[in-house]
Write a structure and sequence with these properties.
By secondary structure, the protein is α+β, with helices and mostly antiparallel strands. It contains eight helices and seven strands; from the N terminus they run H-H-H-H-E-H-H-E-E-H-E-E-E-H-E. Helix 1 packs antiparallel against helix 3 and helix 5 crosses helix 6. The longest helix is centred in the first third of the chain and has 43 residues.
């Protein structure tokens, strides 16, 4: 727009430098029209900039809303929706390339008792600290999501059963050793974990159910432990 306006000014100046045109009775009107046209060009340029900013803001807002729709607001972890989308993508990859993955379903032992004894604010603190601990002890390629309530679901990309067992034990030990501090008092948390690995022909629901079954097996066996469901 600036270039067009400059070309218009140059054109008016060149015409004004020619005596025949400079003395023409319509020259003043032409200059006025040229000035008005230049003004319109500047206004169009401003509108274009505003439009660009609006498009940028709209894209940023859409990205923010997308992130919010896939994030648990309390823990900052991905939510169930995000996990399901990622799990479906992992399943498609496994079917196409013959790769594998593992799932770990876990929850905080006796979480209701924590809420009852200490209040929901402390329960929320326990969830937040557990989420941070899980995130810190996983690979960047893994995904940990808050599945619901005190339950978390972990997707271990390209992991076999031995690797999943090692991760589950690492998380169990790290959680048991990490106190949640409230009003100067330590609240010790433990985890029960259920492990499964992908087998050809399994659906996402099959994998999740197997991990959930293994979790309840660990809970029935006494909690603060992991179990495997093939």
């Amino acid at each position: 727009m600036i270039l067009q306006e400059q070309k218009l000014r140059d054109w008016v100046e060149r015409l004004s430098a020619v005596e025949e045109f400079a003395a023409h009775p319509l020259m003043e009107e032409f200059r006025a029209l040229a000035a008005e046209h230049g003004k319109l060009l500047r206004q169009v340029a401003k509108i274009a900039k505003i439009s660009d900013r609006m498009q940028t803001d709209t894209r940023q807002m859409a990205q923010t809303l997308q992130a919010a729709s896939q994030t648990d607001p309390l823990t900052g972890l991905p939510n169930r929706r995000h996990m399901i989308e990622r799990l479906e993508a992992e399943l498609a990859r496994a079917r196409r390339y013959g790769s594998g993955f593992a799932l770990i379903m876990l929850d905080i032992d006796h979480f209701k008792a924590i809420n009852d004894a200490w209040g929901h604010a402390v329960g929320d603190l326990a969830l937040v600290e557990t989420a941070a601990l899980l995130r810190a002890n996983l690979r960047a390629s893994d995904l940990c999501a808050r599945w619901g309530g005190e339950e978390f679901l972990i997707l271990l990309s390209a992991a076999d059963l031995d690797q999943a067992r090692a991760v589950a034990e690492k998380l169990r030990v790290a959680t048991a050793a990490h106190p949640t501090v409230h009003n100067g008092r330590d609240i010790r948390l433990t985890l029960s974990l259920g492990i499964t690995v992908y087998h050809p022909g399994r659906s996402a629901d099959d994998c999740i159910q197997a991990a959930d079954d293994a979790l309840y097996e660990a809970k029935r066996a006494g909690r603060d432990r992991w179990a495997v469901r093939g």
